[in-house]
Amino acid sequence: MIDFEKMPPSRQPQGTFPWMMQQPPKPLYPGNRPLTAKENLLRIYRGEKPCWMPVWLTDSQYCWPDVYQEHAVFEGTGDDWWGQHWTYEPSIQGQMPTPGYRVITDIAKWQEEVKFPELDAVDWESDAKLQTARYDPDRAHLFHVVEGIFERLHELMPMDETLVAMYTDPEQVHAFFREMVGYKIKLMGLVFKYYDPIDYIIWGDDWGHQRSGFFSNEMFREFIMPYTKTCWDWVHDSGRFVELHSCGLTQQYIEEFVEMGLDAWTPQPINDLDMLTKKYGEKICLTVNQPEIAGAKSEQEARALIRRFVDKYAPRGKVVSGPIMNADEKIRNAALEELYNYSSEFYAKK
């Protein structure tokens, strides 16, 4: 029996994203399920029928190493392990690259100016003992590969210059991305080794803004797709799965996502989730949020909202519910119970 109360606390600053992801998990509600939440989620990723509709980041659990310095250590103000300076912003309880600081002064000089982190010098082993002590063996475990190949480039030099460089110096951008592939694969290999078990990754690389993607589909296929796919293929070859985190209105790349073999995507709500689930629900696992649950005033209302959600989305294929939120714990538990029971009935008949 897991004693969730005795799991070690996070060392990250309270309220930051890593701190939230390192919180010891709570027992799944309701309990007494026919198989683990991990196995149920992985069934969806494998294209098999689940027993119930999973809940995003409830049926799974983050692995966030404290020694992972793609940002300044402990989300503070300072340099990351690339030498890029970050500033902590209290209003968002997170960091942004500090304006005026840059590592790459000219894309043609990136090979001289960029020093790739010495991953073998990092004490992964000691940190892993702390992080894995919070693992719930019944949940799937994920590693978030933050600062993808495009994000890393525009963190080392300004965003506008990064996009222009794709036109003016494409060979330099390709060379940087090729080098990033080896770095990302080595990073993931070390995490998979020391923080085992890791069942899947969340690949983080923001490819859009609120109106569209940053690139035409042709440019996506030329610059982003081949290097990202190489990394994803390596993850798949290791027996694990890939979920995409990519902020923005990025649905224009959905055909490329499918072609790249992406297992799961959690689109921001500005994307057309109705269209995506109807057209691609059998090809890719999609997470759909249920913001209405947070506003439910009674258990009865929450249960009705859950039933409507399951009736709409479960028949469309591989759909995962977004987090179930409500300030009233009784209402939240009623929603979780209804989702488990009602979706179980649906899948049992399917």
UniProtKB/TrEMBL annotation:
GO BP, one annotated term = porphyrin-containing compound biosynthetic process
TM region(s), chain numbering: none
Gene3D superfamilies in alphabetical order: 3.20.20.210
* Organism domain of life: Bacteria
Which is an annotated Pfam family here?
Answer: URO-D
Instruction: Give this protein's Gene Ontology molecular function annotations.
Output: uroporphyrinogen decarboxylase activity
Q: Which residues form the Uroporphyrinogen decarboxylase (URO-D) domain?
A: 137-314
* Protein name as annotated: Uroporphyrinogen decarboxylase (URO-D)
Q: Which species is this record about?
A: Sporobacter termitidis DSM 10068
Upper taxonomic lineage: Bacteria, Bacillati, Bacillota, Clostridia, Eubacteriales
